[in-house]
Amino acid sequence: MAARQIVLDTETTGLNARLGDRVIEIGCVEIVGRGVTEQTFHRYLNPEREVEEGAAKVHGLTREFLGDKPRFAEIAPEFVAYVRGAELVIHNAEFDLEFLDRELALAGLGRTLDHAASVVDTLALARELHPGRRNSLDALCERYLVNNRHRTLHGALLDARLLAEVYLAMTRGQESLVMELETPAATAVAAASIDLSKLRVVRASPEELAAHETLLDDLDKTARSGSVWRRLAPRR
Which CATH number goes with the domain that contains 144? Predict the structure, then answer.
């Protein structure tokens, strides 16, 4: 993992950069040492074109509101300085990068990855972790208990803040695994000091066993080869 990560989101005039849709909002949140800092980057932008009605319903931004905002080229040097050398964390990265690459090209500043070090696509990561499940930002907020009740409209900075929390929750297990691998001696010492004869075994109730089987049934429906629990369980 890079020493510095930037969680990034954009809002646009429409869905097709190739047909001339433009970026109208950029929101970025910085993560350092798996902690969110106060070093954010947030700009509204004048697209010099109409905002599609469907897009406006999603983010609430209008051409009238954006009319006095800077053009992308005016803030582009500040943006590339902010992301320089960082790992970008983006949900559905292909979409945002296509828009940003076109904006940077128009500003004469190359492509996004000419400045940032790499990209993590949290949508691709979520699909690996939760195959067959809904993996929108709202769905991930619900799954990882990230409070998004104040999200009535999409907004680049708000969505970047939510995605930062979701990303840290999604990758927390990886951090725990690394910590365990780095401290095998401490783990072995702790295990050796336990007197197993004094441990009290609390067995699951019939209700808990039934709930467990229901959960495994749900896993079997989404996992291609069935749940790992049932495949590895000893046969009786």
Answer: 3.30.420.10
